[in-house]
Amino acid sequence: MSKENFRFYIKVRTALNVQARAIYEELHSVFADEASPLRTVGRWAKWFREGRKEVEDEARPGRPVTETTTENIEQIRRLIDDDPYSTIEELQEQTGLSYSTTQRIISDHLQLRKITARYIPKHLTDFQRAERSNGPVIIHRIERGQTVDHRHYIDNCLQPVVNEIKRQRPSFGTRGIKLLHDNGKPHVHKAVCDYLESEDITLVPHPPNSPDLAPCDFWLFDFVKQNIGDQDDAESLNDAITTFMYS
Hints:
By secondary structure, the chain is mainly alpha-helical. The chain is built from twelve helices and four strands; from the N terminus they run ααααααββααβααβαα. The model has no long low-confidence stretch (mean pLDDT 80).
């Protein structure tokens, strides 16, 4: 299936108000690795929502641009700032620059290298090191008998985490952040999914019927238990956990 056919499918599904991730999962379930990457699906879905009609690439007259100009460098910089996970091929598609020129701008002029599929500076400044030194730790206590629905989850769990991420990462905010939580009803509610999408947070799919893969079960609960000891009551347990997690 050609890339134009993929784009036409994205166009039709977007017109039906299907979200980009759902479109990607539909394509991937049929075409596997042949399907367009999620970022490409999201980009074309955005263009179609904004009114684009054509599914073909825009014509670029003449030979590919190979000049390493100030304008080209700034264009690549802006695209990577917007999406640090962009591939060279995707940057080519958006700029019309040749592969070698794009690669040279990234490596020689922007002084970037790719780590775990993300571009980061080769040499971090003190400010950049500070942004990477600490992750947000949010502890929310649930009273006995209290019901946690999707609204409670958004207001008391997700929003504080998102606000703290934005505070600690003023340059990038939530860009590139991925969230893994289990398939509890509050987690998979449409309002929660819409909120995460509005904050540009990628939701990592959690296998169904796999409660043993809940993120905190990997290491956190046992780690906390080993370090706080026995507590007399719920209040002292809450204080001990809070003190330990913020220490």
